[in-house]
Design brief:
The protein has 485 residues and is of the alpha+beta class. The chain is built from ten helices and 19 strands.
Amino acid sequence: MNHRRSVLATSALALTLLVPRAEAAFQVVLEVDPPSGASATFTDGDLDGIIDFNTTVGGVFLAQGQVKQNLNPILQVLAIAPTPPAPNAILRNVDTVSHTFRVTVTSDPFPTALAPPLGWNLFYNATVDDALSGVVNVPSNGVEGRVNAGAALVGSITGPAIAAPTLIDLEAGAVDTTDTAPDMTLVLTFTADPQDEFLVPTDDGFDGTSIQFEIFNTNQQCVDKMNNDARIVADKAWKSDFKCIRLGESSDVTTCVDNPEDEPTEKKNDKLVQHFPEFCPAVPPWGVNRLSCCDGGTTDGAVCGAAVPCGGGGVCTQGLCIGVAAENGINELTHALFGATVMAGADAQQKCQQIIQKFAGRLFTERWKTLRLCKRDSFASILSDADLVTTCLGPPQPDPKGKIAKRQEKLALKVQKLCIDEGVTPVGAAFPGDCTAVADGVFDECVGQRTACAFCRAVNRADAIVPPADCDLFDDLVTNASCAN
């Protein structure tokens, strides 16, 4: 968990959401000899999540830099960093005697308090030196991460006594199983002789390279990470099938489509398996297949009760069922369109096949993206598999931003433009699967329903939903045996 560049930070921060605030609680307090010495407080007047400061507190504490917050649905972060383009923030004793200095950064209240278990990481990076190249004497220094308006200590790092120019490069992380976090506080404290200074490097986009505190609900982290990794596996899988059709003009490409060792897809599957123990040390009760999965053997892909060899000599690997479910979902979709034997056509027919398979794959992964956002935004109210189904799968699957509907509309346009208008009609003749007898005017609807069916079945497996979502109802909103669980 305490790693230099967490994948969670990268993916979650790509979802950055600066939450509008009615009042600015976000602030930084600079203090000399706390609690009774001089102090200065800076707030976020323009509500942009950044506070710049350039001041000398009490005539002795030179402070130049900025503090930043990022409150998004998965990861909450505070950082002390330089104000660009400066290479470092400067925290310096400019008096003639030693002093203790404290920098306290308090976040805004979170839109929703984080419930335990809380994962946390502290990153403590700075260069300690004397501004006049004199003797360095910093007998004490350290950082703390706190919650509940600073009342509850979550984690800390105590730096060593420093008597020479020193590069501090420390980090720590763990899980707090008791505290609830309605907000967060980052505290840097150090005692320094005259002209001794802390030079804090850039945070590099909240990347743990400055002085930074981050917290997150570990269950939510696990659900979000596994969901996104599964979506990435599915994305690679449809692209692989697309390539098989593109390169297999007028030939049987079934072996290519069914290849279980497709390298790009397997790399993403391997990455998911690597992420599982890192991001899911305590597996939540819903939203993730929390059992093991058989890798090889006669029961490949089946859930197992323990991490022991499965029937036929396979090995059970936690997390593998999640990626396998996503990959198999795309395989099922391709066969639903083409039938048991996947024959690539030629010329206009082949182009039609490619584009329909491509946009069906995109519709599949769009449904997975939408599911991820629903899990993220409704996390606090989902307590079980039943809640997950009701909240995020329906049917119909909630589509608050209309992304699924837009994908379906694009699919319809492609059927018309790149199939029918190019002379591939009836379109079903190019797809001898479940939609082969469907009229051109509703062919896109049939493809959309087959996509919904494959997606529903895959999610039931990836999330180990019990009882499973009703895929027969999910795909076309009718109980008609069109999609078995």
